Amino acid sequence: MIKKLFLNTKINATNDELSDEPKPDKTPKKSKLLDKNIEANYSNCRNYCSIMKFPLTMMRILGLYHRKNDPFYLKIYPLSVIVILWLSFARTFSLYGFWYGKSDEFSVNLVYKIIINLWCFITVFNATIIYINQEIYSRENQLIHDLSYFLDNHCDDKRRKRLRKKIILFFILGALVGILNSTAGAASLFGPDFIFKAFSSFLAPFHESQWAKESIPYKILNCIILSYTSFFWVLTIDYYLSHCDILTFIFENFNKDFRELINNNILVTNKRPNGDQSGYELEENFDSLRKKQLQICKIINQLDKCYKHSIGMSLIVYITIVLLLLYVMSDWNGNCINGIMSFLYPFWTINGGIILLLIVVFATRVHEKAIGILDDLLEVDIEEFTNSLCFKINMMINKLKYSEMSLTAFGIIEIDKQFILTVLGTLLSYFIVIYELKGGNSNTTACDQNSNSTNF
């Protein structure tokens, strides 16, 4: 009986193999975490959306954030805001007199116009980069899923809450700066002429006409453009800093797990594991962490793809702004800088310097955390372990030493500690040279005046 049942089962199995009908696939399909068209939502990016809920809501209201699968009418709003801000670059014509030789004077007012143009340009440029990443290349969605995978699976809730509070603090401070700028623009609607002149150049060159000083709709439109530009300016910076901070947080958790393996009195104290099974288990744990480290390093590459153009252009613009401001500030006197400009110029100088430091320091922290386990690996005593484990440790040391695990500017310049020193050295050297040259010119002028008075 049992033999007959076995033969029937074997015949049925053979018939199934020879049949042409497709068999239903009973194996569960694997979710493609890195699918380009997949969208960030609360089901598959739970912890990321929890951390970034308030920032993304604020950005969505202003038109800085959207999803690829949003309806068309929801995509029109952010696109329209960006197009209007680009069209408002008619203010560039306010430099017409200087470019075409009508004014040869490199005055404080001219520096002010150049700074306004550069500030608005970098703001709209960064917003456009974010829109392109979200809509065309889907790089933003892939980056969000990569970050969310490690936040969901490899980080504890207590530290995630601290990270969430820190990121919310970034955006609250950014919102306060945007509100401050918007309030100053609103004050210029009905304030004195010198305040209107300082905050009305966002629709230049029309602000120089007499009708612009009396037209309330014109002033309101100018205030709206100023408000959107201000919020776009700070929120694009906060969004970049938040992603850098999340990636740094992931590396900190990974480095903690790796140090626990390295410093468990097995790898660093010449104690051979007890038995072959412990040795295999140790090598398996090392392989698991090494693969995880490779996955996290891919996020650096994805983050660099999203922000390398934004970082590069921001560095160029903000360094230019700071150098122009230092040029003006080095010749400070009551005749050149007075009124509200005596407040705006120092404020912008400090502001530009802080933004430069934030962009560079947060990118440098990513690089430092990525190679943070190098010192611990160098302490490993590999003499008594298997050749396979020794080879893997040496290979990981070489990767950490010589691979490019850092954010870049335009994909060319790596941002690390040396780059910070380069930027600070450039700004300091420029300020010293300009200050000495202007000091020499002022002394020469004073000597000429004394000699002229003596001759008289």
From TrEMBL:
GO CC annotation: membrane
GO biological process: detection of stimulus; sensory perception of taste
Molecular function, one GO term: signaling receptor activity
Location(s), subcellular: Membrane
One Pfam family cited in the UniProt record for this chain: 7tm_7
Protein name: Gustatory receptor
Membrane topology value: Multi-pass membrane protein
Entry's transmembrane regions: 76-99, 111-132, 167-196, 216-241, 311-330, 342-363, 419-435
Keyword flag Transmembrane: yes
Keyword Transmembrane tagged: yes
Domain of life: Eukaryota
Main localization, broad class: membrane
Keywords, comma-separated and alphabetical: Membrane, Receptor, Transmembrane, Transmembrane helix
Listed InterPro entries: 7TM_chemorcpt (IPR013604)
